[in-house]
Every structure is written in C-alpha cells, then in structure tokens.
Amino acid sequence: MSDSIHADPAAGPRPRLELLIAAPRGFCAGVDRAIRIVELAIERYGAPVYVRHEIVHNKFVVDTLRQQGAIFVDELDEVPDGVPVVFSAHGVPKAVPAKAAERGLSYLDATCPLVSKVHRQAERLVAAGRHILFIGHAGHPEVIGTFGQVPEGTITLIETVEDAEALAPADPANLAFLTQTTLSVDDTAAVLAALRARFPDIVAPHADDICYATTNRQTAVKAIAASCDMVLVIGAPNSSNSLRLVEVAEREGIRARLVQRAADLDFAWLEGVATLGITAGASAPELLVRELVDLLATRYDISEREVETTRESIAFKLPRGLEAA
After folding, report:
1. Prediction pTM value
2. Measured in whole angstroms, how far is the alpha carbon of residue 183 from the centre of its chain?
3. Least crowded by CB within 10 Å, which of 7, 122, 250, 318?
4. Could you read off the pLDDT of 33-63 as tens digits, one per residue?
5. H-only helix segments in 46-94
6. Which CATH entry fits the domain spanning 13-27+212-308: 3.40.50.720, 3.40.50.261, 3.40.50.2000, 3.40.1010.20?
7. Residue 142 designated active-site
C-alpha cells in the first residue's frame, strides 16, 4: 500500500472522483450456495467441519469461515475419521467422494450445479464414444475435477488458439468440446472458432458452459470501461473469473488492477483518474466493495453510480438434509 494513504485529508480541498460500479458483480448463486453449505454444516454438526480446498477463491470468505469453525485442507488424507467434510464449489474428481465413502466419512458436495452439469455432459460424451477437447486453464481445480469424471485418455486440455491449431487427434471425426465455466467469453470464442475451422463436425454442448455469472460480470465491465480512466477488480489472484475481469477491462483499452481488499489499494494508481470503475469477482462479497468505496471517500469527494446491465435472480437448492438446518 502507498504511504500516501496516511496523508492528512484536511490538507486541502479533496479532489473529485466519480465511481462507476458495475452490476452484476460479486457473489453468484453457486458461491452463495457453497458458503451456505459450510455455514449450515457447522450449525448442524458443530465445529470443526473440514473443507477440502478453499470453498471458493476468496481469502476473506475463507478466513471468515475458518473463524466459524471450518478447517481447510488440501487432501482427504488430512481429514480425521468421524467428522464431516465439504467439497469445494469447483468440483472434485470422482475418486474423492469414492474415497470418502470408503472411509465412512460423511460428506457434503458444494460443487456448483453449473460445474456438475459439465461433469454429467463429460460422462455422456465419453459413453457415446466421443473424445472431449476441454477448454480451460491447466491446474485450475475445476479442470482437475472435470478430468476426474472420465477415464484417462478420453479428454484433452486446450488452453489457447495455438493448442487448437496444433492438435492432432486420433479420430478427428469423433470430437466434442466442453469448457471451464469461468473463462473469458472472447478468448473462448477465438479458441472455438479455431477448433470448428479444423473440425467442422465437433459436437458442442447443449448450452454454453461458461456460466451466466461469468458472462454477466464481463458484460458489465465492458459497459463501464469506455467511461472510466481505470477499473479496479476486487478478487483473489487465484480466482479465474476475477482475473478475466481485469483482462476484459484491459482489452477495452483501460488500465485495470486486481485488489483483494481495500488495503491493497495504492493511491498512486489513481493519479490522473477522474472516473474509476469498480467491480468484484463472483467469489468476492459486497462487503469488500463497500470497504473500498469507504476508503476512497476518506481521500476524495466521491460520487457513486451503479451501471446495471442485467438483473440476476438465479438461486440453487441446498443439498438434501441441509435445507431444514
């Protein structure tokens, strides 16, 4: 953080700063559901409740749940016998719940239903004899989870247009594609165009795999970018959808920065900025947006305007057994 944050705001008239706040922003229905599952599990079973991997990619959310009694672990081996375990919103390979069942662990699956939909599609495509080209980012938990739904060798990762152009499949007439739910809409379109040009018969999913929340947040950033001198995205550095929001703003020709919390703001970034765009990734709570606005108000005479491109009303059901908790 810049030392200038500690400067005396009474030293002179405060500069004006217009805030354009993108909507939709922040929590999506899948993240909301996953967090609620952990909270209700703690309420029902008592602490501690173990969670395999970060429930969502946001340090503030994870730390808050940790204070309530959640223990986050990397692998199932770290979960002791006799305590409940929750699987993260990103999804897990089939081997993980199978191993939990083998050990007699009580588990709750907080996988986003839109990710689960991709898992079921992968199973059906492989059962139909198709080889899947999966567009996503290597090492992302969602990619690992999806690859773990089908036998090894039945799915190939495609990250870039170059990957699509270099691909040499054994059976080019028998291909299908699926995508990670948190990708850049524009980047994915370019990769798909390359795949379709090479493999015209490639089978597409019934509906776009990139989730509604990812698409909506990217559209909202595009709507404010042209009117902004800079865009701040609240989100974690390991959050795919948050990083994509930074890229969307930059692609529109606007400077953009990712911040996890208001404390990460360097006021030097705002020199020459008259209009600042603000948004938040799908795993960042609204509380962090307000925290950033409040900090800006200590140094600037701010005006605030929300720019809404669509209204979201999607909600996902909780797992059976937790609904009544």
Report:
1. 0.92
2. 9
3. 7
4. 999 999 999 999 999 999 999 999 999 999 9
5. 59-68
6. 3.40.1010.20
7. yes
